[in-house]
Amino acid sequence: MGDKPEAWQAAPGDMPPDEFRTHGHRLVEWIADYMQHGERYPVLSRANPGQIRASLPSGPPHSPESLDRVLGDLDEVILPGITHWNQPGFLAYFAITGSAPGVLGEMLASALNVNAMLWRASPAATELEEVVLDWLRQLVGLPDSFDGVIYDTASIGSLIAIAAAREAVGLDIRRRGMAGRGDLPRLRLYCSEHAHSSIEKDAITLGFGTEGVRKVVVDGDQRMDATALRQDVEEDIRSGWRPFCVVATVGTTSATSIDPLPEIADVCRDHRIWLHVDAVYGGLAAILPEMRWVLDGAERADSIIFNPHKWLFTPLDCNAFYSRRLDVVRDAFSLVPPAYLQTPEGDEVKDFMNYGPQLGRRFRGLKLWFVLRTYGAEGLRARLRDHIRLARMFAEWVAGDPDWEVMAPVPFSTVCFRARPGEVPASQLDALNLAIEQRVNASGKIFISHTVLGETVALRVAIGHIRTGERHLRSAWDELTRALSSSRPVPTRTSSPAGAAQHTRD
Ligand SMILES: Cc1ncc(COP(=O)(O)O)c(C=O)c1O
User: Residues with Cβ < 8 Å from 138, sequence gap 6 or more?
Assistant: First the structure.
């Protein structure tokens, strides 16, 4: 294909089907090649701030351009600015996967381009969403009293849950709002200091303010202390607060700790508080019979969320929200619809626009359907089990090396660890580990991230990409040990073995 735009481009109408076919086949080839050989790119983009913007024209093209030129720029301008989340060397944050079936499902969703706002706007979009959510519910072992909705992200899923919790308090907030109401107690939400930052953002968005969030202390394994939660709630009640929501996490972002759901559910029962469980990463492990325990007590939650886009091989974005009280979610958001959204079906069907602030909704159920069907429960279990095996293997390498230590239990597929060579004083370990992280990421072979546990920097290796295997973990370990060797302080001539031993481990 030449550089010249085709005749159709400046006239009304879309690209002709034969040309779409040509470009489409070429793009699928590109994607297949990327999936097969994407490891040739550095995982963490080496772009400098502003570099990509500076390589692009500052205004839109006046005349049509050929798709050839666009694809050429994709390779030359855009790819250098991509951090390769969809490659197996990506071990940072929570690693994710746009699996091949998921990518195909996503492609189809954009071709159909349905807006699943109302049942009649595309009955299959609503009903498939209901079906795949019910399949996922069965896979993680939640009772059928839980009914679901797909949102984009966990941040929004939790926002919806907290709005429903506010509605459940019964203070007529939906109608009268909260501002300037002398009759309203201040409402408070509880989560551990390890809850994801989205919870605090949601509380700000919903008008509770950061003071409306009380962070409950954690135990030595970074799990919410349920006794402290009870004390916090009771103390707040004595001082005039109205506790209305507890957010517990199964698989916290930093340490992947698991809050004790049964004890937390007891507190919520005793004080009539909405229990929301953020199980977006760790909760998906419950698909494995041997890991089902991570959701023990979740059946008592009012709402719970999972992210198939985190650890279930579904392309971003896909948040599966469940509630035993979906009627309350609906009460929080539904309005008598304006004339243009009224439909004759009534309560016979679910109009998903009634379950959140947004009207337009993507057909996200389709890609999840592709993933669940093409891997099947067996295939999904095999992959999650392998990720957990790899994480434990990596943790054993760390634990077996005297220069390194594991920093938190490893229930899922994420390992928190740090270098701790005997000769480096405790006060310098954070800087040493951050330097190691930088060196490892500069290698381009893998990308890891870090967090802070207590007051200590911990490196994190998170396994979540479908093609990550032992080879990538071995490469990560080689890079880490090499980075430690080159970041180690050079011993001075005067230092004796006895001198080195003074820097004892804390
Ligand atoms: C435990 C937990 N909850 C919520 C989120 C937010 O996820 P999302 O990007 O889907 O909003 C994250 C992100 O990593 C997370 O780890």
Answer: none
Verify whether ligand 1 is closer than 6 Å to residue 196 (CB atom): yes
Instruction: Tell me the C-alpha distance between 95 and 436, whole Å.
Output: 20
Give the closest residue to 210 by CA, choosing from 195, 230, 222.
195
> In this structure, which residue's CA is closest to atom 3 in ligand 1?
196
- The one-letter amino acid at 37: H
- Cβ–ligand 1 contact at 314 (below 6 Å): no
Range in 271-275, 315-319, 502-506 with the lowest mean pLDDT: 502-506
Pocket perturbation via mutation, ligand 1, pick of 158, 281, 414 by most ligand atoms within 8 A of CB: 281
Cα–Cα nearest to 505, from 355, 380, 375, 403: 403
Whole-angstrom distance, CA of residue 423 vs CA of residue 494? 14
Residue 344 has pLDDT above 90, yes or no: no
CA-CA distance, 305 to 97, in Å (whole number)? 18
Pocket test for ligand 1, best of 158, 307, 321, 413 (most atoms within 8 A of CB): 307
SS3 readout for 312-375? CCCCCCCEEEEECCHHHHHHHHCCCCCHHHCCCCHHHCCCHHHHCCCCCCCCCHHHHHHHHHHH
Please give the number of the atom of ligand 1 that sits closest to the Cα of 249: 1
> Which whole-number Å values give the CA distances from 259 to 235, 283, 435, in the listed order?
21, 11, 32
433 lines ligand 1 (CB under 6 A): no
Is 0.90 topped by the overall pTM?
yes
The answer, yes or no, to whether any atom of ligand 1 lies below 6 A from the CB of 280, is: yes
Which atom from ligand 1 is nearest to the alpha carbon of 153?
10
